[in-house]
Amino acid sequence: MILPIALAVVFVALIIALCLYASFSIRSSLYGKIHWRGNSDRKQIALTFDDGPHPKYTREILNILKQENVPATFFLVGKKVEAFPEVAQEIKAAGHELAFHGFTHRPLWMKSRRMLEEEVNKSREVFRRVLGFEPQLFRPPYGVRGRSIMQTAQKLGWKTILWTRAGWDWTEISGAEVARRALRKPRAGGILLLHDSDGPSLEADRSRTVEALKIIIPNLKQQGFSFARVSEICRD
Ligand SMILES: [Zn+2]
After folding, report:
1. pTM of this prediction?
2. Strand 159-161 to 34-35 pairing
3. Cα 32–chain centre separation
4. What would the pLDDT profile of 105-162 be if each residue is shown by its tens digit?
């Protein structure tokens, strides 16, 4: 009697582990294809900024990108596009790539189909209204996804983008440490995750990201890397 129970427990534990891997691993395509790196045929890196727009830090980052003549991709939270439409328009006007990052920044995992539809439809509507187009790239908040949101993304023709390397700028580390982590073993086709705002909140202090960026871009250039938008390096 004990053996079948033990086997059942092991089986259930394995299924749970597999579901968690499918939802949380940045390299798992079990729930649908994700891109955690781009094509490596050119020595290019894609800089990505999540959670904006933010009136202060997005603009500071835009200034650095302009000075360095470097493109980037911004994964925008729908309700912040609504709150700061002029900042979102400035990102677009500067020629950077814009992408979806949820409407409220809630994790899109274990949610009802109705709630997921609401998130997706509100994001699409605000992009059309404020920016005049609908992006084709999507990064699920926290990188967490479930089967339903991946099916929705696929149906809409969105590419789901995660990342190769993170600067860990959502933690309390210094700007220099963010840069050190972001610069660890850079590789051609790498997607670098940074933040110009903070999750669902309209408030943020991203001064350390700004500080880090001033180190990251010149350092990568010195190593012979150039920069590309995500859609330019995720071509398959
Ligand atoms: Zn985020």
Report:
1. 0.93
2. parallel
3. 16
4. 999 887 788 888 899 999 999 999 999 999 999 999 999 998 899 999 999 999 999 9
Is 196 annotated in the active site?
A: no
Q: Which of 35, 54, 195, 196 is catalytic?
A: 195
Report domain 33-233's class: alpha beta
**CA 52–ligand 1 middle distance (angstroms):** 8
Q: How far is the CA of 8 from the centre of ligand 1 (A)?
A: 37
Quote the distance between the C-alpha of residue 169 and its chain's center. 13
Catalytic pick from 50, 51, 169, 198?
50
What does the pLDDT read at residue 15? Answer: 77
Q: Which residue has the tokens 């350092």?
A: 219
Strands 73-76 and 137-138: unpaired
Distance 21 CA to ligand 1 centre (A): 19
Q: Are 181 and 220 in contact (CB under 8 A)?
A: no
Query: Which among 44, 30, 55 is positioned nearest to 229, based on CA atoms?
Result: 44
Mean pLDDT for 45-63 is 98
Residue 3 clears pLDDT 90, i.e. is over it: no
- Domain range list for the chain: 1-30, 33-233
End-to-end C-alpha distance for the chain, whole angstroms: 51
Residues 128 and 124: their CA atoms lie apart, in Å, by 6
Compute the chain's Rg from CA coordinates. Answer: 19
The SS3 call for residue 48 is strand
pLDDT at 16 over 80: no
> Is 195 a residue of the active site?
yes
Query: Tens digit of pLDDT for each residue in 211-226?
Result: 999 999 999 999 999 9
